[in-house]
Amino acid sequence: MHKLKTPVLVFAITALLSGCAIGPDFARPDTALPEQYGAEGNIPVAAEAKINAEWWTLFGDATLDQLVEQALANNQDLQAAVARMEAAAAAAREAGADYFPGVDLAAGASRTRTSGRLDTGSPAMRLNDRYAQLGINYELDLWGRVRRSNEAARAEALAGRFSHDTVRQSLIAQVVATYLNLRVQDVEVLATTRNLQSQTKTRDIILGRRDVGAASDLEYAQARAAQAATSAQLSESLRQRALTENLLALLVGQPGNRLEPLADNAVPLPPLPPVGLPSDLLAARPDLRQAEETLVAANARIGVARSAYFPSIGLTGFLGSESARLADLFSAPAAIWSFGAGLAMPIFDAGRTGARVDQATARQRETLANYRKTVQNAFREVRDALISLQMYDREEADLLIQLTAAGDALKLSNARYDVGYSGFLEVLDSQRTYNSAQLQYLAARRNRLLATVDLFKALGGGWQEDDAKTPQDDAATSSAKAD
Q1: For the chain, how are helix, strand and coil distributed in percent, rounded to 5?
Q2: What does the pLDDT look like over 286-303, one tens digit per residue?
Q3: In 343-371, which positions are buried (b, 16+ CB within 10 angstroms) versus exposed (e)?
Q4: What pLDDT is attached to residue 337?
Q5: Please, which pLDDT band fits residue 6 given cuts at 50, 70 and 90?
Q6: 215: phi > 0 → left, psi -120 to 50 → alpha, else beta; which?
Q7: Contact between 354 and 306 (Cβ < 8 Å)
Q8: 3-state secondary structure of 344
Q9: In 115-255, where do the E strands start and end?
Q10: Taking burial as the number of CB atoms within 10 A of a residue's CB, which of 135, 160, 202, 391 is the most buried?
Q11: DSSP 258-327
Q12: 91 and 161, same structural domain?
């Protein structure tokens, strides 16, 4: 009876020890963040907000949707990130193999002749040897070294996946921002073209009036100068648009791709965020999840390093056959086997193990600091984007008033000049003011659009359309008011 209890006791102790793992268990660190993102402290908290992974569709632009699909399929930076993610996943599978015993197959055959001229007096002999065997080796994970190694490998694989998601999110944001900038540039080109046409017409009228003595050479020179300045401005706008188009083609992985300019002056409208955004939306950001998994891996590496203090127990064995004749190789008398267990434990290593534990602990503290900084920076990015969105919205509204007033002033100055009540210099000044007001308004709309993209990127996604406000109040400002 005693003989039966001993193996059971050994097995129970082994199982109990196998449930332990040296090193600290991971716990998500606390990060002191406000409960809401407050631009000027007056944005209320939404009771619930759902993340929309396909946030770019909120712009309602089919061309933009198609460009994002092309970028996700063809962009080379994203393909490289996919390869890194697959490599990390393969490394995790490799680490997981340590849970199981290794089995090797060995087979061989040899023929040997010994010398008959040795002092042993043995005659010359010819010896045949044929063998086939399976070898097994396994490490008992009593202290959790294998489990901590797998914990670290799995976390690193997840970090690789979230790194890919971060690259993907950044790519989408860059494609959307570049496309929206291109569309604003389209409207800038349209507005500048119309201004050029108007100034060219004015120059021709002044030329005709000068020929009959109704206008001076000074007025004609002023009209020509204004028309030339607008023409140069148009050339610069066309150059900027071409460069933006080339960048967009590179991002979607189709060099040489061209987009037809807008046929009207309808600037895209930015979708509006819901009433409030809770700070726990940060959990959707892939870079935060990557930082957390990196921290998990660093924490597990401490346990791997500490396990070196404890003995390592390995089991080895083989089973096979060996015979001089091939025909007898698998007969019962030819059977061979071996089983063994080994224990290795450090006695003196001059502090090497302690130094490795200290290194792993220091790396974990560094990773923890980086994690907290990533969380804090993410909160700042969302808050910055919300503030920018608020301020650009106000700025755009004011600039729309300026643009409308500048258009009215231009009409009045033309009427005054036509009846001889004012000089041509007043018309030129009104034209410059109106042209500048157009470009300032478009710049504000561009800034507002890009701030919206920054908000989507900072949140790690968008909001559901049902949760957001509809831009009814922007219907009147959906165009650049270029005409």
Answers
A1: 65, 15, 25
A2: 888 888 888 888 888 888
A3: eeeeeeeeeeeeebbeebbebbeebbeeb
A4: 76
A5: very low
A6: beta
A7: no
A8: strand
A9: 125-140
A10: 160
A11: --PPPSS-BPPPPPPPBS--BGGGGGG-HHHHHHHHHHHHHHHHHHHHHGGGS-EEEEEEEEEEEESSGG
A12: yes
**Looking at per-residue confidence, does 124 or 72 come out higher?**
72
Of the three residues 328, 344, 360, the one that is the final residue of a domain is 344
Domain with residue 155: its CATH number is: 1.20.1600.10
| pLDDT bucket at 31, cuts 50 / 70 / 90 | low
The set of residues, in sequence order, having a beta carbon less than 8 Å from that of 51 and lying 6+ positions away, is 281, 284, 459, 460, 461, 462, 463
- pTM tops 0.70, yes or no: yes
Give the C-alpha distances (Å, rounded to integers) separating 121 from 113, 117, 118, 127, 287.
15, 7, 6, 17, 78
313 neighbors 141 (Cβ within 8 angstroms): no
Phi, psi of 209, deg, nearest 5: -70, -35
Residue owning tokens 């700042």: 380
CA–CA separation, 264 and 46 (whole Å):
37
Instruction: Provide the domain limits for residue 252.
Output: 19-99+143-310+352-477
Q: State the total domains in the chain.
A: 2
**Radius of gyration for the alpha carbons in the chain, expressed in angstroms and rounded:** 38
- Residues 194 and 325 occupy one common structural domain: no
CATH at residue 133: 2.20.200.10
Please tell me whether residues 200 and 253 are part of one structural domain.
Answer: yes
**Strand partners for 320:** 133, 336
Distance CA 442, CA 482 (A): 10
User: How would you classify the pairing of strands 51-52 and 102-114?
Assistant: unpaired
